[in-house]
Design brief:
By secondary structure, the chain is mainly beta. It has helices at 33-39, 55-67, 203-210, and strands at 17-27, 49-53, 71-75, 78-82, 86-98, 110-125, 131-142, 153-164, 169-179, 185-199.
Length: 211
């Protein structure tokens, strides 16, 4: 599930297709050695961590955490886009709640809103053949009662620009917290977003290589 298996090669054109695989993961025990390896030595007061790893090393850590039931996989979208172009993926869940402000009782009418994740990437190749990714990730989740009186929604955002060799991965993330009822900061699980970017070989080149 966490492995990257796809034809890849060094970029040969500025508009060559790029395969971007993403994993959004909650690390339920950030002190676990595998989680610590992904998070690095990040002080908790900091909001974001970045690291480049071998994709197999990342997969090994994630698979180990999965076997120990120490992670929650939220989404794993895959994006194929030409170099120089961008794409946006939304993974949302509709939530209905009573429209109490309109004077309606519970059960009479509902108005919807959505929570979930949004991945937005813009791509390019530089003159040295590196893949440039402009990443804009956001996640909205409920943190309280949807009826009292307005839903409490926590928003997590990651904005980053990174330069990767074809086949490299990056880990972005940090610790999520929200404002508790007593006004104190309540720490939750650590969240990471893993992205792997690969320049796909054109079909004609793959066929020539196979011969």
């Amino acid at each position: 599930m966490f492995r990257v298996e796809s034809p890849a090669g060094a970029p040969v054109a500025s508009d060559q297709p790029i395969l971007i695989k993403c994993w959004s993961v909650d690390l339920l025990d950030p002190t676990d050695p595998d989680a610590a390896a992904l998070l690095g030595d990040l002080p908790r007061r900091m909001a974001q961590v970045e690291g480049r790893f071998d994709p197999d090393a990342i997969a090994s850590h994630l698979e180990s955490l999965d076997a120990k039931q120490q992670l929650h996989l939220r989404s794993m979208p895959m994006i194929i886009v030409r170099g120089g172009e961008g794409a946006t993926i939304k993974i949302t869940e509709p939530i209905d709640r009573p429209d109490l402000q309109a004077g309606l009782e519970r059960g009479e009418a509902m108005f919807p809103f959505e929570v979930g994740e949004r991945y937005e990437v813009q791509t390019a190749f530089d003159d040295d053949g590196f893949i440039l990714l402009d990443i804009n990730y956001s996640r909205e989740s409920l943190t309280g009662d949807i009826e009292e009186p307005l839903p409490s929604v926590m928003t997590c955002r990651i904005q980053h620009t990174v330069r990767l060799r074809s086949g490299e991965s990056i880990v972005l993330g940090g610790w999520r917290s929200y404002q508790g009822d007593a006004g104190d900061r309540t720490e939750e699980v650590a969240q990471i977003v893993v992205l792997n970017a690969r320049a796909l070989l054109p079909v004609s080149m793959r066929q020539s290589a196979a011969r």
